[in-house]
Amino acid sequence: MTLPQPHITLSSHSYTQREEEMGSISAASGTTVLPYHLRRQNNRRSVLYDHRHENLPVVSSSQTKQQRWLYVPETKLKRETLRLGFLARAADSTSSSPPVVASGDKTLIPDDEFTLAKISFGVIGLGLGVSLLSYGFGAYFNILPGSEWSAIMLTYGFPLAIIGMALKYAELKPVPCLSYADAVKLRESSATPILTQVRNDVTRYRYGDEQHLEEALKRIFQYGLGGGIPRRSAPILTMIKEEVLTDGRYCLVLVFEAKALKLSDFEQRQAKFTSFFGPNITAEVGKGESENLYEVRLISNVSASSATP
């Protein structure tokens, strides 16, 4: 006669302690229960896996035929997201921004280069002569020391003062020149020798001439001749400008003041301006900024690429 075996129920706490003591328990044939610390690690991994995938959409079995999900590693997903965002911003900025148009540098370059042509010899001669005369008379009357040199000072001081006064009387002051940075860069390669000579002549002191470009204006406007203008109505050069046109050509602008002339008087002589300041020059006439100002544009037809070094 076989006695029935007593049924023993272990609590979870005692079962856990028992597993820790034994290390492993055979539950059934061919099945091994892992130790507690290994089970704990597996549980932690499963919790982390559930946490990483808890936001993923749940796809039912009926939707698996229509949608297929691809698992992408997190680091690769971040790189792809950043790259797509950068491309989107670049495409948006390219489509929204207007086309960039290269414009010339319109910065004014001051004409502060020191040359002898910008010095008034009349002022120098007059100042030196008057100084010698003043000191010579003071030394002659024993007001100032150096009485033995007074005769030499008076001898040289008097003619220097006369020459200085004569140069000052016949002096023609230079006209202002407005030069833009892009025109200065293009000057050496595109400006013709005649344009360079005109710019140098009108921006320095001249002596004996009634006005700048006197010979050129006399031939173009034909003072006192048939079809010409009276000499008292001659235009006066007040300013020159160096510019670069929109097509990239160098241009020297002559600004004249003519109270007795009209724009038609300049337009009738536009061909004469071209022939006189040529070759390789195209002259254009236009109205100035104020009422009595007129502009004559001397455009160089010499391009920078075809200019010889």
TrEMBL record:
A Pfam family reported for this protein in Swiss-Prot or TrEMBL: DUF2854
UniProt superkingdom: Eukaryota
Keywords: Membrane, Transmembrane, Transmembrane helix
InterPro entries xref list: DUF2854 (IPR021275)
Membrane-spanning segments: 119-143, 149-170
The protein's name: Thylakoid membrane protein slr0575
Species in which this protein is naturally found: Brassica rapa subsp. trilocularis
